[in-house]
Design brief:
32% helix; eight-stranded mixed beta sheet; binds cytidine-5'-monophosphate; 321 residues; globular; four-stranded antiparallel beta sheet; alpha+beta
Length: 321
């Protein structure tokens, strides 16, 4: 995995990686009193990684890789908040440098910032020798953001609450090959949730549904994920956020159209967008669909990935612990 975030010689440093997430099903309920929305989601970790190195050094945040200039380098950075949370809790006054290498689209609806926080939690736990278990790290993760616990856990999981309550779907092993089409610009998650509320409120109150069509239950999808038919899985994918993302960024309709016409089994917006995902039968099919999408110039960048993959983990610990 490429990483140009260099560590000063002799520094004690730990590196961890955490995966991007996609939502195979993203059902969004009404807005709650605390401003969040209840979710029913099937998360899946895919093979795009954020890489975070923490070292005993000056307090600083350095970000490299695609989209790096858009990422804050002050203490609002989600990885910095993760480091601060564990350091404060441990009563440590260690100065900790954070180096982040972006492998997940920034503001793309794939939880890149959440993956930074997940990797930072796992790496800082090791750096400071805290020995927090996975459950304790996931509890800290939930305080940092709704998607952060899943970026620690990885695999395929049912998410409820605001997305932070997880149940691993052990049998959901069906592999997927996915084309990821990055859009020009990003969408902020709260803005897309607000647009969904607006679209739903705009609907005729006499409409018994009182809103846009909503994704139903997840049982058929979970059953299909235990099998090995990519078309059956693709036919059950759903995203309530898609209408809101398309309303804010209508150009995505064309991207979806091109990917579907290129033969993808299914195309949809990833989470709150604007990244679009195209589900394919196998890797060769995904490469062919990616080439078509590139040729049409409807995406800033096109990548091929696969899932599921595991969650956040340490990749380099020079202390040898
Ligand atoms: O949890 P996180 O900090 O990632 O959420 C960012 C924002 O997205 C929240 O402040 C909220 O506006 C919106 N959100 C939501 N419902 C969720 C998750 C996020 O409305 N379940």
């Amino acid at each position: 995995m490429p990483c140009d975030a260099s560590i000063p010689a002799g520094a004690r440093a730990v590196t961890a990686v955490a995966p991007a997430k996609i939502n195979l099903h993203l059902g969004v309920g009404d807005v709650r009193g605390d401003g969040y929305h209840d979710l029913l989601t099937v998360y899946r970790a895919v093979d795009l990684w954020e890489r975070v190195t923490v070292s005993l050094d000056d307090d600083e945040v350095v970000v490299t890789g695609p989209g790096a200039p858009q990422v804050p380098t002050d203490r609002t950075n989600l990885a910095a908040r993760a480091v601060d949370l564990l350091r404060d809790e441990a009563g440590s006054d260690a100065r900790i440098a954070i180096r982040i290498h972006k492998g997940v689209p920034v503001a793309g609806g794939m939880a890149g910032g959440s993956a930074d926080a997940a990797a930072a939690l796992v790496a800082t736990d090791r750096l400071l020798g805290l020995g927090l278990g996975r459950a304790a790290l996931e509890e800290r993760a939930a305080r940092l953001g709704s998607d952060v616990p899943f970026c620690i856990r990885g695999g395929t999981a049912l998410g409820t609450g605001r997305g932070e309550k997880l149940a691993t779907l052990l049998h959901a092993r069906a592999e997927q090959h996915i084309v990821v089409a990055l859009a020009d610009g990003g969408l902020s998650t709260p803005t897309v949730f607000a647009e969904l509320d607006r679209l739903r409120a705009e609907r005729d109150p006499a409409d018994p549904e009182r809103g846009l069509p909503r994704a139903g239950g997840v049982d058929p999808l979970v059953a299909a994920l235990a099998g090995d038919d990519p078309a059956a899985v693709a036919g059950l994918l759903a995203n309530d956020m898609e209408a809101a993302a398309l309303s804010l960024m209508p150009a995505l309709r064309r991207t979806l159209c091109v990917g579907r016409e290129a033969g993808a089994l299914h195309g949809m917006v990833s989470g709150s967008g604007p990244t679009c995902l195209f589900f394919c039968t196998d890797r060769d099919h995904a490469i062919a669909v990616a080439a078509e999408i590139s040729e049409h110039g409807v995406a800033r960048e096109v990548r091929v990935t696969r899932g599921p993959v595991g969650g956040a983990h340490i990749v380099d610990d020079p202390t040898g612990k």
